[in-house]
Amino acid sequence: MSTTMVSENHQNIEVNLVLVPIEEVQTVRWDAKKAALLKDKKENSGLSFKKIEILTEQLGNRCSDAFIIRLINDDFDGVSVKQLETLCKAIGAQMKDFIPQIELKIPQSSLDITNNS
User: Fold this and answer.
1) Predicted structure pTM score
2) Is 37 inside any structural domain?
3) Contact present, 30 and 78 (Cβ < 8 Å)
4) For the segment 7-58, what is each residue's pLDDT rounded down to a tens digit?
5) Considering the domain boundaries, does residue 34 fall inside one?
6) Considering only CA atoms, which of 2, 114, 90 is closest in space to residue 38?
7) Distance between CA 13 and CA 45 in Å, rounded?
8) CA 6 to centroid of chain Cα atoms
9) How far apart are CA 95 and CA 81, in angstroms?
């Protein structure tokens, strides 16, 4: 865990960050915004729900047409990362559209200070 001090309105706020490798994430929190994005990506793909079901089955992780409809209607609290990944491949979407990703760039000088302590 990393602690960072952030100044906002001349007040110090302590922020605790827990970084987890994407391979360790099991489920994605689902919400109306992601549901709307999935609906848009599905419509742009031009694929029917049944065709997407067949493609996801061929990719090794079947997503039924009923499951996809429930996702689009925001009828879930969370969704399996594996299923979402397969669904994205089938409709040509990117996982980064649904899972926020942070790229950290740590200056070499910071690493040197940490290693010398």
Assistant:
1) 0.65
2) yes
3) yes
4) 455 566 666 666 666 666 688 889 999 999 999 999 999 999 999 999 999 9
5) yes
6) 90
7) 44
8) 25
9) 9
